[in-house]
C-alpha cells in the first residue's frame, strides 16, 4: 500500500502519458509564444513548441504555475483520501515553481505536503521523479524517499552541449560579444549543473567532437573504475547527436542502463536552442535497490 502521493511539474520532461500511467499528478508551467499562451505538455508538445520558437520574432518564455493551481492539485488528492504528498520540482534557482507549491501547501488542511527542490532540471528532475515512484510503489515512506533523493542528487549530473549560443545570448545567459566571438571560433560550451541546479559552463572546446570527448573524460575522472551508469539523452531535434554521445560513453568501457532519449521541454529548449544534445548520468549504485 502506498504511503504517499506524488506531484511534479511539466519540466521533468517525462511526458503526460508516462505520468498518468504511473499515477503522478503533473502541474504544468505556461509557455508564451508571441501573443499565444499554452499549458506545457498539455496544450503544446515539445515539437509544436520548437515550431513556435522558430517562427517567433521574440524569444518565447515560460511562467511558473500559480499557488492556486497547485492548491487545486493538492486538494484533489486530499479529497481522494491522500494524507501525504511529495511534490518534486525544478531547481528553485531556475524557477519559482517550488515556491508556488510551497505557498499552496501552507494553505492546505488535512493533508501534509512536502515540497522538494530537486536542484535539477529536465531529465535529471525526471529521474528523481522515477525514483520516487519506484519507492512509493514499493511501500517506502515519504521520509525514506526524501532521504534517498537527497543522496541521489549529489551524483546525478546533466551535461548540456548546445548547438548554437543564439538563445543563450538572447536570454542574457551569455553576453552578445562573448557569444559572437565563441561562435566565430567554432567553440562549443559544455554546461553542467552545480549543487543548487544553476547552469554552469564547465568546458569551452573547439567543435562538437571535442565537446563529447570532454564529457567522456569527466565521467572517467568521476568513475575511474568504470562503474555501471544510468544514462538518458535529451535533444532538441538532434537524436543522432544523442546516439553518438551515448555510444562514446559506452565505448569508453562503461556498462550502461539506458533510458529512452527524449525531446527537451520548452524551458530548457528556450535557453539551449535547436540542435541541443544533453546527457543525464547517475551511477547505478545510487539508484533505489528495493
Description:
By secondary structure, this protein is an alpha/beta fold. The protein contains eleven helices and 13 strands. The strands form four sheets. It has a four-stranded parallel sheet with strand order 2-1-6-7, sandwiched between helices. Strands 8-13-11-12 form a four-stranded mixed sheet, with helices on one face. A three-stranded antiparallel sheet has the order 4-3-5, covered by helices on one side. Helix 10 links the parallel strand 11 (229-235) and strand 12 (256-263). The longest helix has 16 residues, at 122-137. The protein starts with a strand and ends in a 7-residue tail after the last strand. Mean pLDDT is 91; it is low at 175-181.
Helicity, as a percent range: 40-55%
* SS-based class: alpha/beta
Number of helices: 11
Rounded to an integer in angstroms, the radius of gyration calculated over CA atoms is 19 Å
Strand tally = 13
**What is the distance, rounded to the nearest whole angstrom, between the alpha carbons of the first and last residues?**
15 Å
Average pLDDT figure: 91
Main sheet: which strands, in order across?
2-1-6-7
N-to-C series of helices and strands: EHEEEHEHEHEHHEHHEEHEHEHE
Residue fraction in strands: 25-35%
Label the overall shape: globular
Q: Could you list the spans in which at least 5 consecutive residues all have pLDDT below 50?
A: 175-181
> Main sheet, how many strands, which sense, barrel?
4 strands, parallel
Amino acid at each position: 500500500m502506498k504511503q504517499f502521493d506524488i506531484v511534479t511539474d511539466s519540466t521533468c520532461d517525462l511526458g503526460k502519458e508516462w505520468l498518468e500511467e504511473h499515477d503522478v499528478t503533473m502541474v504544468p508551467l505556461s509557455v508564451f509564444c508571441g501573443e499565444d499562451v499554452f499549458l506545457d505538455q498539455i496544450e503544446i508538445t515539445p515539437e509544436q513548441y520548437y515550431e513556435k520558437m522558430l517562427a517567433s520574432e521574440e524569444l518565447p518564455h515560460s511562467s511558473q504555475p500559480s499557488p492556486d493551481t497547485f492548491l487545486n492539485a493538492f486538494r484533489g488528492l486530499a479529497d481522494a483520501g491522500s494524507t501525504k504528498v511529495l511534490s518534486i520540482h525544478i531547481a528553485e534557482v531556475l524557477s519559482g515553481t517550488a515556491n508556488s507549491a510551497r505557498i499552496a501547501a501552507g494553505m492546505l488542511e488535512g493533508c501534509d505536503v512536502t515540497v522538494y527542490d530537486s536542484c535539477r532540471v529536465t531529465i535529471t528532475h525526471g529521474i528523481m521523479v522515477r525514483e520516487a515512484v519506484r519507492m512509493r510503489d514499493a511501500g517506502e515512506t515519504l521520509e525514506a524517499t526524501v532521504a534517498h533523493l537527497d543522496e541521489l542528487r549529489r551524483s546525478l549530473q546533466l551535461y548540456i552541449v548546445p548547438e548554437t549560443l543564439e538563445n543563450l545570448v538572447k536570454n542574457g545567459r551569455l553576453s552578445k560579444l562573448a557569444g559572437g566571438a565563441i561562435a566565430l571560433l567554432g567553440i562549443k560550451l559544455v554546461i553542467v549543473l552545480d549543487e543548487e541546479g544553476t547552469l554552469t559552463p564547465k568546458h569551452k572546446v573547439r567543435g562538437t567532437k571535442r565537446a563529447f570527448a570532454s564529457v567522456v573524460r569527466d565521467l572517467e575522472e568521476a568513475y575511474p573504475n568504470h562503474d555501471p551508469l544510468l544514462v538518458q539523452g535529451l535533444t532538441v531535434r538532434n537524436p543522432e547527436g544523442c546516439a553518438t554521445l551515448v555510444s562514446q560513453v559506452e565505448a569508453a568501457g562503461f556498462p550502461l542502463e539506458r533510458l529512452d532519449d527524449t525531446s527537451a521541454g520548452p524551458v530548457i529548449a528556450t535557453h539551449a536552442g535547436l540542435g541541443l544534445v544533453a546527457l543525464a548520468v547517475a551511477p547505478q549504485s545510487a539508484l533505489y535497490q528495493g
